[in-house]
Amino acid sequence: MERSTLLIVEDEQLIALNLSLDLQDCGYLVCGIASSEKEAFNMASEHKPDLVMMDINLGAGGDGINAAQRIGSELRIPVVYLTAYTSDDLIRRTGLTAPYGYIVKPYNVRELKASIETALSRHKYEKITERSEKRLKAAVHAAKLGLWEYNVQRGTILFEGLFGDQVNIKGDMVELQALDFFTKLALENVEELEELESLLKSGQNVSRTIKLKSKDGAVNEDRWIELYLSDMTLENGLIRIGAVKDVSERENFVNELRTAYNILANIDESVIVLYSDFTIRSVNKAFYKHTHFSANDVVGTPVSTVLSGNRRHDEMLFDNEKNTRHEVVVHRKDHSHFHALQTITRIRATDHNPELYIMILTDISSLKKAERELNRMAYRDSLTGLGNRNLMNQVLADMECAEENNIGLFFIDIDSFKLINDSMGHEPGDQLLVEFSQRLQQTMRAEDILIRLGGDEFVVIVEQIERHEDFERLAQKIIEICNEPFNISGREIMVTCSIGVAIADETVDCAASLLKHADAAMYESKRKGKYTYTFYSDNLVDVVRYRLFIEQGLRKALTEESITAFWQPIVDAQTGNVVAVEALCRWIDKDVGMISPDAFIPVAEETGLIQSIGLHMLREACMLIKLLEEQGFGGIRVAVNVSGIQLKDAEILDALTEMLQDSQVNPADLELEVTESTLQSENAALLLWQIRKLGINIAIDDFGTGYSSLSRLAEMSVNKLKIDRSFVDNLSQDGRHQIIIEAIINLARSLGLAITAEGIETQEQLEYLRDKGVDSMQGYYFARPMPLAELLKFLPDRHQSARHLF
């Protein structure tokens, strides 16, 4: 058994030595003998004895009481006085140092040992108690508890702890009447005050979670406390002890969870919680509604095996730090399927929770149905059922024009079709186009590609024809489909066609050149008297000369500022007020006059001059916005068409930034119109996103004639869809166009986009589109494109004329 260590403080050596021997005989270890205050403190600091035997009068060495005071307060070592003095003043002074014993000399050894053992035992249990108190204090501090005692006799509460400032109780060890205490807690439900006071007096355990009033100025900050009162008592039952804790974070978290649960339980989207290995952790009720799988069917199962369909995007998530959105096919339990927009969010792991993924599936079946109809219209001519220009462009882009592939392109134009259309009307003209296309289909092979380019122009693309004679024979067969009269509206009429043929060889650099060559050859057939075919050759220089005139003239027009903007107003569908104008590029040559955009825009795109023209139009637009502000027409948006070629590099982004800074116009007053095909380019999509970040609006022009997937459209920062005029032209004659228009409007609404209809020319079109919910309209019915001076005159007059039109 380890012996206790004692330090002797005695100025008389003989007494000290004698005491040392007695202590050692009693089984104690004496670590040293000190004769002064200083020496006593130093030796106590060095040896850390279990007990100090202190003489009070140390003679020249000082005062033992002072030494005891310092050793007890600084070193926490118990002291027993051993002295021959017993005056009342001395006893009072020693009592102030909280000694562990007082032995009067001469001492009895047995009494000495008893006093020492008593002191050591008392110190031992005080240390245990002190340790317990510190641990309790640390626990209270960590838990941010406030402690309180309820005095049953006085009806008061004594409060202390870190939590006081949270409940309007300042200071430490504050004693309040019970009612005042609960009032300071600022309970939201004041009716609980009397109930709590009654519970205090009952002597029962009290454990209540109570909502407090929000602090002054706090918004959406719910405050909660947990109030606890034990049935344990102190001082013979007079004191009951309890605690109070801020549980606002816990209660608010629980309420948030409860709200989130209710949302998940009631939303129509399927929500799937996944572990990091993509096994299913849980699903919501809507998941069963859409897939017919119950939770028991799928929990713990890999999502790919349950939902099947197109799951190729799932694996990408492990390397993706952002939310992902993809269009997927989801299989139901009965093996049917539906299209969904899948959004997956990554929830990072914490110390106590694993990494999770939240998958949300939004049923887009109705939108996909509309998209399929739009896609059909995108690649098929609505009148003849043949392919359209979009299909031709895609086919040509995919072709390799090597000579060994034996590719030929036939450009067909019905002769004098405009005369037939003008004399007999549009409906007979359409009948002629339909019958002509049917005869063309009967003539060609199943693998040949037939295109109605527009109007009375058709294109046939053939492959794997080995001999030049076979191309000639095919051209002659096409000519011969016009040998028999066409029965149109009960009348038999004879029509002819002219054909241009281009064959791929080593001189053709790309498939697109075939179309140009065939077009040039077709015009040569027209020049020769029509009703014939011509193969392209290098001798067809007139077409090249015209192209050269356009190209060189464009460069000159840019330097001479012959390229200008005409402006066509866009009006609000409900009020008729002008809400925007579209900038339309015009080339006014001083010798030739007005040159059609159809003639020079394609050349500008091929030569790259479209970049300069496009920037010029953007500058004109910014100048108009500034001018409209100065003229009192601020807020009218100005729209500019942007070619996909302009979006191939970042030059347009830099230029727009500079223009906005120079002109100091509101970016929201500028709108860029792009075609659907532009959305398919990742580079263009990124540039449009960056342009949108500048505050500029983005509109999809001629919507419904190109191809754009719903997922791509949903991901893009687009503000508006513009319904192509081709759907508006035959609105009253073709019910399919009405279906498409309504599908486009519904699509725009579901994506939160504005919608503008182009090509309005009649009151009937205006009323139909306005009733269907179009936001704005544009067309000759309201105004033709006009120069700037006419626009500035038109705008003030428009307010009056709108009253008569609407």
Protein model, in words:
By secondary structure, this protein is of the alpha/beta class. 43% of the residues lie in helices and 24% in strands. The strands form six sheets. Strands 24-25-27-28-29-30-31-32 form an eight-stranded mixed beta barrel, surrounded by six helices. Strands 8-7-6-11-10-9 form a six-stranded antiparallel sheet. Helix 6 crosses helix 7 and helix 14 crosses helix 15. It starts with a strand and ends with a helix. Residues 315-319 have low confidence and may be disordered.
Ends distance: 110 Å
Count of helix runs: 27
Rg over CA atoms: 47 Å
Question: Biggest sheet: strands, sense, closure?
Answer: 8 strands, mixed, barrel
Report the β-strand fraction as a percent range.
15-25%
**Main structural class:** alpha/beta
Tell me, rounded to a whole number, the average pLDDT.
83
Nutshell version of this structure?
With 806 residues, the chain is an alpha/beta fold. The protein contains 27 helices and 32 strands.
